User: Fold this.
Amino acid sequence: MRTTTLTSSVLAGLAAAVNLATATKLYVSSYAGTITTLNLTHVGNASYNLVSLDTNRDCGHNATWLELDLQHGNLFCLDEGIVSPDGTLTSFKVNKDNTLSRVIHANIPAAPVNSARLWGDNGTMLLTVAHYTAALTTFKVDPVTATFTLSQSFNFTQAKPGPKADRQAAPHPHQVLSDPSMKYLVVPDLGSDLIRVFYVNRTTLQLSERPSINVTPGS
Assistant:
């Protein structure tokens, strides 16, 4: 176990994302293929201790985005697959001893870079994944067991390259976000200068594509 004392200025970014009064566990993914579980505590005088509790290597070679379902004790990890032809999606159960137990490790389309959770009317869960290689995939999740199955796949195309040829030769969805009602999903597409929009059926958790929103070319 390793302990590091950090000043408040170093932790400013972490404090913005974590409510220190109620949350002390942090999960950090790395392109080195690790997920590190950290414990953050306030030790007074504007200083904090950051303690490494566990390191897990079961996500993949290039662990990138983490999605935490704190209510059910589940963690989902995307492996971007920089050194392999496919990406992967891995689900974990978070154990009381701060370790992670892998549930499912599955190959998915290349370059998964971001995910978001949606909840259905009957307590079901959908994990949506943006792939930089011009795709969006969705997975139905059993929140109790952290098992998942592929639900839908969307493959995007564009008629011609954008004005910035080095990054706009093809669609590049790089994020997926839901609105507060969880009835709509938006996917910014760097390559196509679009915000792709989907309607979410809250009963079936099926997505239906809606007209995209154009943004400034090259933006």
The CA atoms of residues 198 and 209 lie 4 Å apart. Confidence is low (pLDDT under 50) at residues 1-23. The chain is about 5% helix and 55% strand.
